[in-house]
Amino acid sequence: LIDVPEEGPVDEGDVPFILIEDVPVYRGCEGLSKDATKKCFVEKITKHVQRHFNSELSQDLGLRSGKHKIYAQFVIDKIGNVTQVNIRAPHKRLEKETQRIVDKIPQFTPGKQRGKPVKVKYTLPITFKVE
Q: What is the pTM of this model?
């Protein structure tokens, strides 16, 4: 006998952050409403990047002046760890720096879909300016 929940099966793939019912909880964002938890998650990730990103690095790489973007995509797994990190940056040293920052992100309380922990895909854009 196979037990299938009334709402239909939970997809075993990665659930995009914007579609997840219960977002992963960043340390310090516990006990908030769903909307407040999502907002807190984004604020904490942003603060984490601002605190740890070595912005001096981008000035020494010979990049043209102006705004540049780095995209870090990762999965928060069913136990709250950051895995499957994929980074696109305009320079290898910026990719390494971004990896270093992502590695420092603390463990989350996992995201949930229909009450079950699921893997959640998150894309973190980092914008920086070269003078």
A: 0.85
